[in-house]
Structures are given as C-alpha cells and as structure tokens.
Design a protein that fits this description.
Elements lengths: L1 H29 L4 E4 L3 E5 L5 E6 L3 H4 L2 H27 L9 H5 L5 H4 L8 H4 L1
Antiparallel strand pairs: 1-2, 2-3
Pfam families: YbaB_DNA_bd
Protein name: YbaB/EbfC family nucleoid-associated protein
Organism: Nonomuraea guangzhouensis
C-alpha cells in the first residue's frame, strides 16, 4: 500500500510540474499577443491586455476626414485591435480554463473564484483530529 501511495504522490507532483510549465508557456505567449488593424486611414497596433502600441495615419487622412470622423476612426480601429488581442488571448488560455467554465467567464468579468474552490480548505491529518 505504501508503494501505491508513493506512486500516487509522485504522479501528482509530476502533473503539477506539467501544469506549471504549461502556465508559464502560456503566460509568455500572452505577453507576445499583438493585432494590427487598418481601415486605410488609421492603422492601430494593440499589444497584450489591450495596450495600444502604435497608431499611424494615412498621409492624406486630414484632408479625407473631419476631426470628429478621424476621432471615430481611431476609436473603431482601437476597438477592433483590442477585440483581436482578446480573442487570441482567449484561445491561448482555453486549455488552462477549468473544466465546466467557459473562457468568456474569465475574460468577461463573470469569473467566480468561489465556484472553483472547495467550501472548506484541505486539512492536514493533524488538523482533522
């Protein structure tokens, strides 16, 4: 029985190591996510977590668009770039999302930590006595 317990513990430790490695890899990939979108007048590049890395304008944009149209074009492209970054990030995170939970719950503000954790924490044998 002792050998079975030792093997089970070793399996758990190995699985934990695999999961930590996967989380680290995914975290590194998330730091590299970018998206570039353009409508011909405005080009926006967004980075991780919606950070805007670059905005460029067509050389004739000021003669093509009014200030309010240009402002709207910038907002539209920022929104599109951020949506692409979020979608790619969700795809990267999907394998790490707990079973029974949609990735949108983590990214959409619907995350319920209590739903993932047991009601009572694990107790050591000494605490159980």
């Amino acid at each position: 029985m002792h050998d079975d317990l030792q093997a089970a513990i070793e399996d758990l430790v190995a699985e934990f190591g695999r999961q930590v490695h996967q989380v680290r890899e995914t975290h590194a990939q998330l730091r590299e996510v970018t998206a570039t979108v353009s409508d011909g007048n405005v080009t926006v590049t967004a980075g991780p977590q919606g950070r805007i890395d670059e905005i460029t304008f067509h050389p004739r944009v000021y003669s093509r668009l009014s200030p309010s149209e240009l402002a709207q074009a910038v907002l539209d492209q920022v929104t599109k770039a951020n949506a692409q970054v979020a979608e790619e990030s969700r795809g990267l995170m999907a394998p790490l999302v707990p079973e029974g939970m949609a990735a949108e719950q983590l990214f959409g503000g619907e995350f319920d930590l209590d739903g993932l954790l047991p009601e009572t924490p694990f107790r050591t044998p000494r605490e159980a006595r």
